[in-house]
Amino acid sequence: MKRRLQIGAALLAGAGLLCCALYFFRGGGGGKLTWDDPTVRKSLMTFGYKIYGDPSVENGRFFLSKIVFHNDGNGSVHDLSVSYQIPDYVSWTTPATQSELPPGHTLVSLYYPQLPSKVTQLTNQTNATLETKVRWANKAGEMKEEILRSNVILRGVNEIEYCDLPENELANLYDMLSTGEFAVAMVTPNDPVVKEFAAEITKRTGGTMANIGPHGAEEAFQLMKAIYDYMCETGMRYTSDEGIPSKLGDISTTVQTVRMPRDVIITNQGLCVELAILWASVMEYLGCNTSLVFKQGHAFTVVHTAQQSVPIECTAITPKAIGGWLKALGLSQDAAVVPFEKAVQMANMELSNLEEGNEPYIVYNVQNYQQQGMHAPELPSIDVDKIKNILAQRSNHTATAYAQNVGTGGNGTAAASTQVRQSYYRWVGANNMASVDVPEGWTRMENGPVPGMVFIAQDMQTTLAVNVFHYPNLAAPIDGMEEARRGIARNGGRVKIETQQQKGNSIVYTGTTSSRNGTFQWVGIFTPAQSGVVGMFFGSTKRYFERNQPMMLDIIRSARIGAGESNNNEENQ
Q1: 35 pairs with which residues across the strands?
Q2: What is the CATH number of the domain that holds 460?
Q3: 194-197-203 Cα angle (round to 5)
Q4: Same structural domain for residues 212 and 263?
Q5: pLDDT for 327-365, tens place per residue?
Q6: pLDDT at position 3, please?
Q7: Secondary structure, 3-state, 486-552
Q8: pLDDT at 208
Q9: CA 267, 271, 275, 276: dihedral to nearest 10 degrees?
């Protein structure tokens, strides 16, 4: 009997030890899983979706979620797993598992979401939910599960937020632009729209400057000039729009709508940062290394070669936008165009001021940052033929295009150039220095209501008209244009110059004149002659401008401004 009791006691003791071993082995023996409140990014910039999914970018700084797990018990926690989903965008991820978390240990779980490219189709702020599933074995070895939910804002694809730091941590510009490098992801040299835009520009250089590489300083400078002149001549404009302050929890940031280069090209206008990004995109496509320079409230581009770096003030394409700089650049306050060299001079002055420490600034080298993971998003497909047509039409209406058709020049008097065509009338005036052929049926008048206007001809049916100005006391074409603009303004019209192009001694302009009678679209040619400056305007009401193109170009080809003769007949015939 005694022997039986001893054997039974031994068996019970063994079973107890086995239960204790199983108890502690299964994590119930004092294992206690806890976690801190998840750190979840409050918003995501959808154009940068590739950045958030790459843990190598800036050492993993741009995670969406961070959870720190603790084992506060005396035994291990087993079979811990974490998975994530964002309903409608990301399905449940494959769980990341930890078979054992010993007592006193911690585990950090970071989530870098692999968002789909469809998020770039979001045009407005959209609310989403991050769901985090945590599973682990309890003391009894049974699996427990808990799902954590956090709200996340998906920004519209064109929204950039410049800061992701709490307000109490902001000390300087670098803090306020803690996510400013995301702008580099908007540089899209491989976008078909950017390529077509660059192709229009390189047509002017014969295509010889494409892919010039990092070494051709002079070639890069000439290419930059071609880009700048093209922007001016095709009417691209700088528009101003400051960012909007935004507060999400303890984070204060500035949110700005910044469009992709393709949208700037299509609309032909952009903010300073949009123009800077467009410049970088085009120059990167053509083989140059570029940087984006950010200071408080402004951005511009620097193009690098092995020999030098050339900054460009992108906003100078709209003279009124640079205000007080005009005087510093030696230009008048009502200058119609800021030459490329002046735009470079202005940017050099800005950069020198920054480098002297007078103002904080940040430089983002595009190639360096993109190599580190600031990748551009996948862009939606676009009708490239439509883009080609838009750019071709825009180029056809530049001063450069019209300059090819101007018939200025000639020997002796302007009237002696050619014979008058049948059913046409030739006006000759300005001391025989100017002539133009118009259909005989047009209404004609000598000396119009604007000072300096010496001839008017108009087709009342199509609204196509020719106006000729003569300023005998002026010498420069630009002064003639300004005098005509002031005279028209005194008669209630508002002249807007859109593009200008030098052709020999002449300047060819395009623009519009608005008055209570509507908007008149025109091409203007101002040329120095033996006696003063002669200017001619060709155009029609904006509504009929396109359909009047063939006739207008034919009349432009007939225009002549010759050497002139000294006589007392100011205008004749």
Answers
A1: 69
A2: 3.40.1000.10
A3: 135
A4: yes
A5: 899 887 777 678 899 999 999 999 999 999 999 999 999
A6: 54
A7: HHHHHCCCEEEEEEEEEECCEEEEEEEEEECCEEEEEEEEEEECCCCEEEEEEEEEHHHCCCCHHHH
A8: 53
A9: -160
Antiparallel, parallel or unpaired: β 533-541 and 518-528: antiparallel
**Considering the entire predicted model, what is its pTM?**
0.73
Token representation of residue 333: 């306050």
Smallest CA-to-CA distance from 437 within 429, 428, 445 is with 428
Return the exposure string of 341-364: e unless at least 16 CB atoms fall within 10 Å of the residue's CB, then b.
ebbbbbbbebbeebeeeeeebbeb
How many structural domains are present in the chain?
3
Q: pLDDT averaged over consecutive 10-residue blocks of the chain (573 residues)?
A: 51 49 47 94 96 95 96 92 97 95 95 96 95 90 93 95 86 90 97 95 69 67 90 86 58 83 95 96 94 95 90 92 88 80 95 94 96 94 94 80 66 58 90 91 92 93 94 92 93 88 87 90 92 93 84 88 48 37
Determine the straight-line distance between the first and last CA of the chain, rounded to whole angstroms: 148
Q: Does residue 113 share a domain with residue 93? A: yes
Instruction: Identify any residues that bridge with 425 across adjacent strands, giving them in sequence order.
Output: 438
| Residue finishing a domain among 396, 417, 445 | 396
Q: What are phi and psi of 34, to 5 degrees?
A: -135, 165
How far apart (Å, rounded) are the C-alpha atoms in residues 311 and 315? 12
Is 3 a domain residue? no
Same domain, 454 and 363: no
What is d(CA 291, CA 138) in angstroms, rounded to the nearest whole number? 55
Residue range(s) defining the domain that contains residue 377: 159-396
Domain at 121, CATH number: 2.60.40.3880
Closest CA to 283 of 224, 368, 237, 365: 224
Same domain, 120 and 192: no
- If asked whether residues 347 and 204 sit together in one domain, one would say yes
Residue that is last in its domain, among 332, 363, 396: 396
Within this chain, do residues 142 and 228 fall inside the same structural domain, yes or no? no
Contacts of 396 by beta carbon, 8 Å cutoff, 6+ apart: none
Give domain status of residue 503, yes or no. yes
Give yes or no for a contact between 406 and 506, defined as CB atoms under 8 angstroms apart.
Answer: yes
Considering the domain architecture, whether residues 163 and 132 belong to the same structural domain is answered as no
Flag whether 346 is in a domain.
yes
Tally Cβ neighbours within 10 Å of residue 136. Answer: 22
* Closest CA relative to residue 21, chosen from 349, 569, 13, 331: 13
Provide the residue type at 539 as one letter.
Answer: G
For β-strands 143-154 and 43-44, DSSP reports them as parallel
Q: Which amino acid is at 347?
A: A
Strand, coil or helix: 59: helix
Is 1 inside a domain boundary?
Answer: no
Name the token pair of 548: 């009047």
